[in-house]
């Protein structure tokens, strides 16, 4: 059914379909407990909704992460992999064609008005804002570079109009005022038009000084200056450890001295103070919806683009790493039928947000991890074109979602940059001719959480490997693949088995899984095990179905996984260059001449041309 044919159906159903609001902060952490210092967020969202405790971004930097959120596609499919050209930024977003095919355009095709306030992308600036305007928004008021991260010198462009300076005003407060104006506009619609509203304040991102270029602690409103005087970053095991951790440039970092530690503590205090304006924004948002009688028909999603580290693993303020500090992020949802005060253990990612919004906007019920869009217009993508699935928002959905996913693919290209007074130190490279950073921070990673395992595995472009058992090592300081750890484990015969199998057998499975995920599209991203183990062409009770690591660890598959190609890099690149990323495909089990009976020694592997 086309857009025109759908119009009458959408109009008739619009009053019953929910409004959707997305609050998207910038660089907000989970592991330093920033949410614990936002009492209004707790009151209005966490106590009244569900907190998703296993939510991850798939790339730990803002522009690529936001591109993933707005398209439902992993960064290797958006090809927006950096914050600036030539590999990222708003011009890259446009050149890749996403400005004509992303969330607000799809929502408008489903009959929604769409509004957006705040930061959209890096390099969306005062020079290009009107050359190729961001499409799909009924009303917009965008922050523009190079003023985006200047807390008291912001410039906004409303509906593509000439930039307006808000010098001397506090940017997050300005964003709140603009958000409330758009909210009133949406709520005052006479025809009960459903709406989507995105609001993206810059807090708690660093404050950027342009000349000379510096990333300083975020600026906070004067009314919050008295807060958190005694706060210190949690002294967890990974906080400035005595023994270096990680691989590549991380493993070479010197221990932070007391002066740097004191500075970093105050840096995080500034971040918490800056978040208080967001906390107040959340309350203002909820109160306005409640006053209009629209709160019970509105879903509110609260998240951030990526996490943040300060002093963990000896690192100064920043992101761009695969550690949980950088990829494990907040997701809180309040709305019709969402359980109150609940903590969900579903494994979710930013690729899942766009499919979830579409599912809600279509009026469809939860369908496992499938979007049910019986009357979707041509402008709305089918699930097969997206890399994410639908997040189980209601308790009744959890059973349906049990097979949805246990994995999140993690990826990054380029270098890593430190922030703050002491952030720029170490083995410097050159990023895009202007900003320095740590070189060779390109890697492919995998976060895997299931019954009996909680793992992070990564392969760097230097071909160094990391594996962390996060249940036993939440700080991710003991790389199970480092020679020192392996020697200790061998000597003590400890921790050498994961989920009951030897480490080598587990690694073979992880390599095969990441081989699928690192270049997956659509169904392969949601169900990578099914790509490795397609359903047999004929029934056989002797061949188990594989939908998880536990299933794949069956001893009958040992020879199959041992012969899989291994993830590797041929070169460290600053952007996505598949030709430099070694083998691109795993091999499907059981295709062609696969024999389904007998032991692993009797079974024949499928045709090695059966790539997935």
From TrEMBL:
<feature type="domain" description="Sulfatase N-terminal">
    <location>
        <begin position="18"/>
        <end position="363"/>
    </location>
</feature>
<dbReference type="InterPro" id="IPR017850">
    <property type="entry name" value="Alkaline_phosphatase_core_sf"/>
</dbReference>
<dbReference type="InterPro" id="IPR024607">
    <property type="entry name" value="Sulfatase_CS"/>
</dbReference>
<dbReference type="Pfam" id="PF00884">
    <property type="entry name" value="Sulfatase"/>
</dbReference>
<keyword id="KW-0378">Hydrolase</keyword>
<keyword id="KW-0325">Glycoprotein</keyword>
<protein>
    <recommendedName>
        <fullName>Arylsulfatase</fullName>
        <ecNumber>3.1.6.1</ecNumber>
    </recommendedName>
</protein>
<dbReference type="InterPro" id="IPR012083">
    <property type="entry name" value="Arylsulfatase"/>
</dbReference>
<comment type="similarity">
    <text>Belongs to the sulfatase family.</text>
</comment>
<dbReference type="InterPro" id="IPR000917">
    <property type="entry name" value="Sulfatase_N"/>
</dbReference>
<keyword id="KW-0732">Signal</keyword>
């Amino acid at each position: 059914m086309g857009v025109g044919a759908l119009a009458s159906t959408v109009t008739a159903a619009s009053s019953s379909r929910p409004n959707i609001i997305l609050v998207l902060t910038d660089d907000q952490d989970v592991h330093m407990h920033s949410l614990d210092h936002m009492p209004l967020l707790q009151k209005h969202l966490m106590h009244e909704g569900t907190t998703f405790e296993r939510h991850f971004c798939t790339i730990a930097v803002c522009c690529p992460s936001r591109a993933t959120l707005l398209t439902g596609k992993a960064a290797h499919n958006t090809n927006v992999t950096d914050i600036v050209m030539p590999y990222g930024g708003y011009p890259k977003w446009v050149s890749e064609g996403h400005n004509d095919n992303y969330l607000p355009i799809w929502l408008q095709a489903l009959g929604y008005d769409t509004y957006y306030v705040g930061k959209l992308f890096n390099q969306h600036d005062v020079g290009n804002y009107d050359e190729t305007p961001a499409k799909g928004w009924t009303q917009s008021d965008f922050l523009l570079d190079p003023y985006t991260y200047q807390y008291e010198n912001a410039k906004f462009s409303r509906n593509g109009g000439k930039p307006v300076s808000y010098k001397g005003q506090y940017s997050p407060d300005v964003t709140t005022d603009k958000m409330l104006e758009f909210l009133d506009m949406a709520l005052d619609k006479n025809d009960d038009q459903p709406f989507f509203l995105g609001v993206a304040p810059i807090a708690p991102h660093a404050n950027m000084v342009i000349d000379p270029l510096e990333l300083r602690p975020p600026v906070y409103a004067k009314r919050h200056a008295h807060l958190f005087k005694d706060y210190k970053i949690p002294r967890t095991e990974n906080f400035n450890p005595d023994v270096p951790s990680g691989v590549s440039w991380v493993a070479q970092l010197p221990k932070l001295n007391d002066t740097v530690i004191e500075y970093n503590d105050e840096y995080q205090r500034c971040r918490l103070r800056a978040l208080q304006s967001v906390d107040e924004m959340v309350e203002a948002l909820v109160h306005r919806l409640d006053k209009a009688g629209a709160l019970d028909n509105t879903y509110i999603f609260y998240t951030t683009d990526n996490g943040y580290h300060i002093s963990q693993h000896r690192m100064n303020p920043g992101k761009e790493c695969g550690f949980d500090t950088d990829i494990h992020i907040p997701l809180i949802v309040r709305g019709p039928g969402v359980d109150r005060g609940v903590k969900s253990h579903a494994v979710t990612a930013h690729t899942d947000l766009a499919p979830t919004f579409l599912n809600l906007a279509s009026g469809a019920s939860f369908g496992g991890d499938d979007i049910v869009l019986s009357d979707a217009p041509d402008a709305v993508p089918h699930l097969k074109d997206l890399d994410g699935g639908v997040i189980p928002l209601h308790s009744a959905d959890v059973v349906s979602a049990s097979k949805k996913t246990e994995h999140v693919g993690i990826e990054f290209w380029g270098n890593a940059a430190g922030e703050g007074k002491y952030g720029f130190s170490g083995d410097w490279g050159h990023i895009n001719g202007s900003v320095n950073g740590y070189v060779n921070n390109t890697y492919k990673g995998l976060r895997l959480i299931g019954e009996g395992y909680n793992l992070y595995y990564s392969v760097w472009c230097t071909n160094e490997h990391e594996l962390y058992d996060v249940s036993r090592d939440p700080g991710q300081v003991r790389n199970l693949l480092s020679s020192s750890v392996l020697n200790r484990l061998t000597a003590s015969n400890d921790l050498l088995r994961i989920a009951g199998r030897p480490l080598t057998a587990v690694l073979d499975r992880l390599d095969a899984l990441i081989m699928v995920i690192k270049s997956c599209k659509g169904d392969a991203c949601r169900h990578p095990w099914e790509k490795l183990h397609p359903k047999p062409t004929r029934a056989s009770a002797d061949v188990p179905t594989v939908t998880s690591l536990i299933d794949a660890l069956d001893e009958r598959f040992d020879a199959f996984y041992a012969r899989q190609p291994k993830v590797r890099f041929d070169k460290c690149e600053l952007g996505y260059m598949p030709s430099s990323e070694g083998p691109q495909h795993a091999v499907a089990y059981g295709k062609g001449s696969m024999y389904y009976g007998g032991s692993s020694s009797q079974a024949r592997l499928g045709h090695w041309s059966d790539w997935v």
